[in-house]
## 1
Amino acid sequence: MNENKNIFFHVYVLATILVIGIGLLVYLMLRAKRLKEERLNTIAKIKEALQSGAGEENGDDASNTLLNVKSDPNYNGIPEAQKLKDAMGTVWDDDEMVFEIIKGKSKAKLKSIELGLQGIGYKSWDDYLKTIFNNLVSLPFGYCAGIDCDKYNKALNMIKAAK
């Protein structure tokens, strides 16, 4: 009888280990499937974000806004570009002049002014804005570092909002 108890106990232990093992195997398989689905969803979201340009540091925000804009043929941007150049002083700059020049201009006129800025040595609107607003450093995701970040962002938003 004692021998039967030992056999029964061993069979019971083996059956318990087998049930626990099968349960653990099923759990791990379901977990692996869920993790794979989460990875695929994450990859899809990353691909979507990359296609929309999210997360890319873009140092030429104003120029990109005016990228496919044709300059106004009836508007000479050179005098305005010269005023922008003159707004830069040796001790302090006339920041308000920048806002006055941008204010109320169409994208086509802003493009004409950008061409004028290129004629006097600036690569683009962005190059000029970073120069007048104390050599800003652009950081990823729209952040900047410098004394006049608020003024830079204001000018940039005015250019982006132009019709």
## 2
Amino acid sequence: MRSQLLKGILEGCMLAIISRQTVYGYELSMKLRDYGLSVSEGSIYPVLLRLQKEKLIKGELRKSPNGPNRKYYYLTEEGAKALEEFRTNWEGIKTPVDRMLVGGEQ
């Protein structure tokens, strides 16, 4: 269950970052790290592929200022809907789980 839960959360976090700006894979892993999520590039690319197959994001090759072309990802309309659904679901579980973990009131 843990890996499935984390995978779903990672997908939602990746959609949130991509919704703000187009990013390439390595840049995405750095942004996740900036937020405190240490995720290897090897974990990110399979999720990017899955999100593309589900038509939640699209990738576009662009010239890089240094080195080979990079694939930049951006959110599709379906991706925006999926992100909104993730936010709704997250809000629905975040508060009750936080209360349970800290022993707050029911």
